[in-house]
Amino acid sequence: MSNTGKQIKVTLVRSPFGRLKAHRDCVRGLGLRRLHHSVTLIDTPEVRGMISKASFLLRVEEN
């Protein structure tokens, strides 16, 4: 699979502390480590699934 796909920027805006383990795992799986940390990811169905699972903790920007 090529890396020429659309990219999205994901920022952690709320703390995963005290949330369900599945939500914390999704945040870590996206590569987010601390509040206001941002990562740029390739827009795939797998990434979109992790984002939707913990969407209330994240801010997503289309690039």
Write the layout of secondary structure elements.
Blueprint: E1 7-12, H1 21-29, E2 38-42, H2 45-53, E3 58-62
Antiparallel strand pairs: 1-2, 1-3
Mean of pLDDT: 93
Tell me the Rg in angstroms.
11 Å
Under the CATH scheme, which class? Answer: Alpha Beta
Number of domains: 1
Characteristic terms for this protein:
alpha+beta; 3 strands; Ribosomal Protein L30, Chain: A; 2 helices; 63 residues; 25% strand; globular; 29% helix
Write up what this structure looks like.
The protein has 63 residues and is of the alpha+beta class. The chain has one domain: Ribosomal Protein L30, Chain: A. Helices cover 29% and strands 25% of the residues. It has a three-stranded antiparallel β-sheet with strand order 2-1-3, with no helix packed on it. The longest helix has 9 residues, at 21-29. It starts with 6 loop residues before the first strand and ends with a strand. The model has no long low-confidence stretch (mean pLDDT 93).
Q: Summary?
A:
The protein has helices at 21-29, 45-53; strands spanning 7-12, 38-42, 58-62. The chain is of the alpha+beta class and 63 residues long.
